[in-house]
Design a protein that fits this description.
mainly alpha, 2 strands, Na_symporter_ssu, elongated, transmembrane helix, DUF4212 domain-containing protein, membrane
């Protein structure tokens, strides 16, 4: 792998990590804490949506991000020829 290909690979990897962290922060900190008063009028499972995000939603989104990251990194590895055979 050339240095240019290696740089492209790591730029794509870091971009994926950054977007995953932004989504996780938005869901856990944004929806669960900052926007909780705005979400309190929406009911989900007998409780308000802000509380649900703080207790359950951020965990579920984090798990979904883990699977998405693994899937996307496998695809990125294949594109750059560094996948495990």
């Amino acid at each position: 792998m050339s240095e240019e290909q290696s740089n492209d690979y790591w730029k794509a990897n870091l971009r994926l990590i950054q977007w995953s962290l932004v989504i996780w922060a938005l869901v856990s900190f944004g929806f669960g804490i900052l926007l909780r008063p705005l979400l309190s009028g929406i009911k989900v499972g007998g409780t308000d949506l802000g509380f649900w995000f703080a207790q359950q939603g951020s965990i579920l989104v984090f798990l979904a991000l883990i699977f998405f990251y693994a899937w996307r990194m496998n695809k990125l590895d294949r594109q750059h020829g560094v996948d495990e055979q």
